[in-house]
Amino acid sequence: MPNRGLFVTGTDTGIGKTVVSAALMHRYRPAAMLRYWKPIQTGIEQDDDTAEVERLGACVAGELETTGIRLPRPVSPHLAARLQGTTIALPSLIEPVLNSDGAVENPAKPCQTIRWIVEGAGGVLVPINETETMADLISALGFPAVVVARTALGTINHTLLTLEALRRRALEAAGVVMVGDRNAENRRAIERYGGVPILGEMPYFNPLDAARLGAWAAAHLDPDRRLLEWLQ
């Protein structure tokens, strides 16, 4: 059975991809055997997105893939790798996903297959090495993208540019999750001009914890269950 899943990307860095990834774990854990993966993490000494998804998503060990590129400098992946005297190679990077049959045993959900929630680094065109960008990683995995965008001023342009970059490379956009204070006009504009569904409007949580995020995801994230198409 082929690997299936979602790739969480964003219109910018620090946009909320990690929180949305954790929310997706909450939302679709009852329907699929999910595993979160951050293939490339820069600035690992300051941020550990896998640990944050473990906390916010109330994940158990089997729901986290911990392999991947981990680099200390909080800069673009291509530069962080160069500063470490190395180069990121996509074939070896994606081996844990593409070369795994994903079969797992679970007494509650026998014979289910792992479905992936993969979080990118930065946006779609962030360089990975001298010739490839995050879009090439999305293409190699073959997963549709969930785009995380702000609700604030400027989001229409940033989101439409991200959607255009995906489509010009024949990559599928499953939908957009907007983060911040609700803005009905920006939502309508992205839906109309981007031709893509808004999967949710996630507020800023204070405090941000697993209980609050899980309750929001259950009630407000992808209420039409559109994403199940890529998780079953």
What tags apply to this protein structure?
9 strands, 232 residues, alpha/beta, two-stranded parallel sheet, 34% helix
Task: Describe what this molecule looks like in 3D.
With 232 residues, the protein is an alpha/beta fold. It has one domain (4-230): Rossmann fold (3-Layer(aba) Sandwich). It has helices at residues 17-28, 49-56, 77-83, 90-93, 95-98, 134-141, 155-168, 184-194, 210-220, and strands at residues 4-10, 33-37, 40-41, 64-65, 69-70, 114-123, 145-150, 173-179, 198-202. A seven-stranded parallel β-sheet has the order 4-2-6-1-7-8-9, with helices on both faces. A two-stranded parallel ribbon has the order 3-5. Helix 7 links the parallel strand 7 (145-150) and strand 8. Helix 1 crosses helix 9. The longest helix has 14 residues, at 155-168. The termini are close together. Residues 102-111 have low confidence and may be disordered.
Element layout with pairings:
Blueprint: E1 4-10, H1 17-28, E2 33-37, E3 40-41, H2 49-56, E4 64-65, E5 69-70, H3 77-83, H4 90-93, H5 95-98, E6 114-123, H6 134-141, E7 145-150, H7 155-168, E8 173-179, H8 184-194, E9 198-202, H9 210-220
Parallel strand pairs: 1-6, 1-7, 2-4, 2-6, 3-5, 7-8, 8-9
| CA radius of gyration | 17 Å
Largest sheet: 7 strands, parallel
Kindly report how far apart the N and C termini lie. 11 Å
The overall strand count is: 9
Label the CATH architecture: 3-Layer(aba) Sandwich
CATH evolutionary superfamily:
P-loop containing nucleotide triphosphate hydrolases
Strand order of the largest sheet: 4-2-6-1-7-8-9
Q: Specify the CATH class.
A: Alpha Beta
Approximately how much helix is present in the residues? 25-40%
Number of domains: 1
Overall mean pLDDT stands at: 93
Secondary-structure element string: EHEEHEEHHHEHEHEHEH
Individual helix count: 9
Q: Rough shape?
A: globular
CATH topology: Rossmann fold
Provide the structure class: alpha/beta
Binned strand content: 15-25%
Stretches where pLDDT is under 50 for at least 5 consecutive residues are 102-111
